[in-house]
Design a protein that fits this description.
Length: 351
């Protein structure tokens, strides 16, 4: 048993947020076991002129302050997304705000963009990095005009980003999800694009938007139209859900406010992924998030339109070893289905 497994067994015994904070400190200080697994070439993919060693990445929400992205890359992630980060530091919502639902393979959180702010994250990102690192931008809770905050975050951090994400889909910041409307989203993204291009010149980082799973058909169509009109570089599908499916086991936890993630989100987010792939004619790269805990589930996301996938909640229960397991299974499934490269599988079920 290596140090990663020992740590996982210990962390399951303590409260979720304390366990998370200890994990970040361990990773930040190099206390982890680096796997020997070497990525199969079938997993290599290229997007936005960037070469990804594999399509399995770390979702935003885990490394909010950019403190352990190199460690997660060492553990086998093909890329990492840090944040969400806001211009000013903020404590987020009162504790407790993170809840495990182990029988359901799920998590509920209502963190509320707790982070140390863009200045702190800027210093973290100046360090040498060992792979692709995206930056997820949010707005401060008390900011009246969200465009101001997204532009501030872009101005400060875009020169250090391998890609930028505008997060308008967290359920834990009041009013944030209303920014997914056609006019609101256009205003935010167009202003961020102008700022990014001004700060970064000829080689600006790709700009993506992260959306909620609780959108109707018209909402999705509106977002697709905005993305195509502004030539947005990608869409992340999806954030956590406010839904509480009837078949969940942890009835006492279901009354907790916040976003539900993990296995219960898989079907809903995957169906949404396929819809957006169709609405964008397969021409805008999509990142699939929500309920992935196996190579088979990663493959399902990819076949429904995802060029890349991301994990977070599954790591709470499976630990770092899950990253290698997913990649091994994904390689096996791709070869069994006759694919020579993962890019060939993208959208294959939708097409």
């Amino acid at each position: 048993m290596n140090i990663n497994n020992i740590a996982l067994n210990f962390l399951k015994l303590i409260t979720p947020e304390t366990a998370h904070n200890i994990t970040i400190k361990m990773l930040k200080n190099g206390i982890y076991f680096k796997p020997f697994y070497k990525d199969d070439k079938i997993l290599k993919t290229e997007l936005w002129g960037k070469k990804f060693p594999n399509p399995v990445g770390l979702s935003a929400g885990f490394d909010k302050n950019g403190e352990c992205y190199n460690a997660m890359l060492d553990l086998g992630m093909g890329f990492c997304e840090i944040g969400s980060v806001t211009p000013l530091p903020q404590q987020g919502n009162p504790k407790p705000r993170l809840f495990r639902l182990p029988k359901d393979g799920a998590v509920i959180n209502r963190f509320g963009f707790n982070n140390l702010g863009i200045d702190y994250v800027y210093e973290q990102l100046k360090k040498p990095r060992r792979g692709i690192v995206g930056i997820n931008l949010g707005k401060n809770k008390t900011t009246a005009d969200p465009i101001i905050d997204f532009v501030k975050g872009c101005k400060k951090l875009s020169p250090l980003a391998d890609y930028l994400v505008i997060n308008v889909s967290s359920p834990n910041t009041p009013g944030l999800r209303t920014l997914q409307g056609q006019k609101e989203l256009t205003d935010i993204l167009s202003n961020v694009q102008k700022t990014r291009d001004k700060e970064c010149g000829k080689n600006p980082p790709p700009l993506l938007v992260k959306i909620a799973p609780d959108l109707n058909e018209q909402d999705l169509n509106d977002i697709a139209q905005v993305a195509k009109k502004l030539k947005i570089d990608g869409i992340i599908i999806s954030n956590t859900t406010l839904d509480r499916p009837n078949n969940l086991h942890h009835k006492d936890t279901l009354n907790e406010a916040g976003g539900l993630s993990g296995k219960p989100l898989f079907k809903k987010s995957t169906e949404m992924l396929a819809k957006m792939y169709k609405l964008t004619d397969g021409k805008i790269p999509l990142i699939g998030v929500g309920g992935i805990s196996s190579g088979e589930e990663a493959y399902e996301k990819i076949c429904n339109g995802a060029s890349l996938v991301q994990l977070y909640s599954a790591l709470v229960y499976g630990g770092a070893g899950l990253i290698t397991d997913i990649k091994k299974d994904l390689v096996k499934i791709l070869k069994q289905n006759g694919f020579e490269n993962i890019s060939q599988a993208v959208g294959s079920k939708v097409k």
